Amino acid sequence: MDKLNLRRQLLAARTALSPEQLRANATKVREALLEQPWVQMAGLVACYWSAGSEPETHGLVFALWKHGATVILPVLKEDNDLDWAVYDGPDTLAPGRFGIMEPVDTRRGVDAVRTAALVIVPALAVDRTSGVRLGRGGGSYDRALARVGPNVPTVALLHGGELIDGVPAEPHDLRVRFAMTPEGLTRLM
Ligand SMILES: Nc1ncnc2c1ncn2[C@@H]1O[C@H](COP(=O)(O)OP(=O)(O)O)[C@@H](O)[C@H]1O
Ligand SMILES: [Mg+2]
Q: Are the C-beta atoms of residues 27 and 98 closer than 8 Å to each other?
C-alpha cells in the first residue's frame, strides 16, 4: 500500500479508539517506558506533546520532568522542520502552528535534539522488520532523526496494530530503534 492510503487507513483506525482506550493505552505505554533503566537515566529527553488520537504523552512528559529529566518538545517551523524548546511544567505550553501545544521557552534550535540521551517520537506506524517509521506526511521527524546519533535510543509510540509489515520507505525515511505499543517494547535494531 502507498503511504497516502496507509496513512488514511491508520488514521481512520485511530479515530475509532474510545477515550477509555486512549487513556488505558497511555497508561500502559507510560508505565512500560518509565520502568526502563535507560529511560530513568536519561538526563535530556526529546519527546512530543500529543494531540488528538496520537499515543498520549502528557503524563509521560510530566513524569519525566518530575523525575528530574530536562524534557525538550518540538516547535514546528514554517518548513516543517522541528525546532526545540524546554518543557518547564504544565503552565509553560501555548498553542503553536495547527493548534499544537508548544513550550513558550526560548527556542534552542533544530540541533538541540542532537544533545538528547533519549528521543521519543510519534508515528502512525513502524515496520516490524526494518524499523522504518511512517509519519503524517510532513517529514519533520525524518529531519529530526537524521540529527540523532546512532547510539541514542529512539522510540516510536504506537497504538495496538500499528507495528506492521510493509511500511513503504523512501530513501529519506528513517528508522527507530524501538517501538512501544500497549503490548510492550520491541527492539528493532
Ligand atoms: N531530510 C529531509 N530534508 C528535507 N526534507 C525532507 C527530509 N526528509 C523528508 N523531507 C520532506 O518531507 C516530505 C514528507 O516525507 P514523508 O517521509 O512522506 O513524511 P513522514 O515521514 O511524515 O511520513 C518529503 O517528501 C520531503 O519533501
Ligand atoms: Mg518519512
A: no
Nine-digit cell at 154?
529512539
pLDDT tens by residue, 39-54: 999 999 999 999 999 9
Per-residue pLDDT tens over the stretch 119-146? 999 999 999 999 999 999 999 999 999 9
Q: Whose CA is nearest to atom 18 of ligand 1?
A: 137
Percentages helix, strand, coil for the chain, rounded to the nearest 5?
30, 25, 40
Q: Does the C-beta of 77 come closer than 6 Å to ligand 1?
A: no
172, 174, 175, 176: residue to mutate for ligand 1 pocket, most atoms within 8 A of CB: 172
Q: What are phi and psi of 83, to 5 degrees?
A: -85, 170
CATH of domain 3-187: 3.40.50.10420
